[in-house]
Write a structure and sequence with these properties.
There is one protein chain. The protein is mainly α. Helix content is 47%, strand content 8%. The strands form three sheets. A three-stranded antiparallel β-sheet has the order 1-3-2. Strands 4-6-5 form a three-stranded antiparallel β-sheet.
Length: 330
Amino acid sequence: MSGRLKKNSVELYRDLKLIISNFEEYLERKELRPKVLEMVKILHLYRDLGISLVDNERNLSARNRILKYLKGYVGHLINGDELLVISGTQEYARRIRELRVDFGWPIISGVTLKQMILDGELDGFDLNTVKPDTYILLKDEQDLESAYRYNLMKDIRKSESLSARDKILTFLRSNIGKQVTGEELSYVSKISDWPRRIRELRTEYGWPVMTKSTGRPDLPVGYYVLAEDRQDEEHDRHIRNEDRIKVLDRDYCRCVICNWPINSSVHDKFRNRLELHHIVNHVKKGKNSADNLVTLCNVHHDLIHKVDKNGRMTVLEFYEWVELEKENYK
């Protein structure tokens, strides 16, 4: 095998082409075993050719060949068959798990990806192309805390006293302000519809769980962050996910006053998420509809509630206040 592995891709291809072209004579034989033995040679050559495409010098392990391939296509859907080819092993799924759990590479599976798409937590992917053995490397950055989080997840996951939603919340509250992946939330919850539990935490219980499309446009796709360890006010908890995304898209995913996070000059440790403000306050029977909501960073959202403590500000007064505040950022 070592002699065979020293050949480069072109040499391996030529060997493969030759052995396949001569295989017809084996098919004409009655005895089975010579055919099988020749097929073994073909299979080995196929495997070696696949490995050589990503590792011509044969210095990498199967796990590192997979990583090298994924890092070449960050954010792209990669099929398991591709990983089978370049890794040279049927156990590529185990190598993926090692990369994720032991080495902190943010790889999510097709199962998790599909759950996120179906629940509206993720767009931009064709659901028909997402299979269980599909994988995606979210970003080319290793998370050195992943091993610690995995041990924490195992402990939370085992709890019989916590519901799936509470398991997710416990995990998020143990990682305030830190990015965690959908794969981690899927694992810790032990259920397939975990994205729904995320939505409930956000819209029914007021926990500021942020994603790229729900208040943290700077986040990579597939990541979640619990911005703060506090629940939103009761009247802010029942905004539908669809309306939340609609308003954020309408306002170009930035605070309408200071343009955070697009305006780099206002980046500071206090601003950590985008929130939706009711133009007509709930005390005046303002609705949770898109036309009564506007995007503010958490700093300006807190500020408007200090200015309008009783929630009696009119629509005109609100927009006059917005224009005055904008002057500070020109």
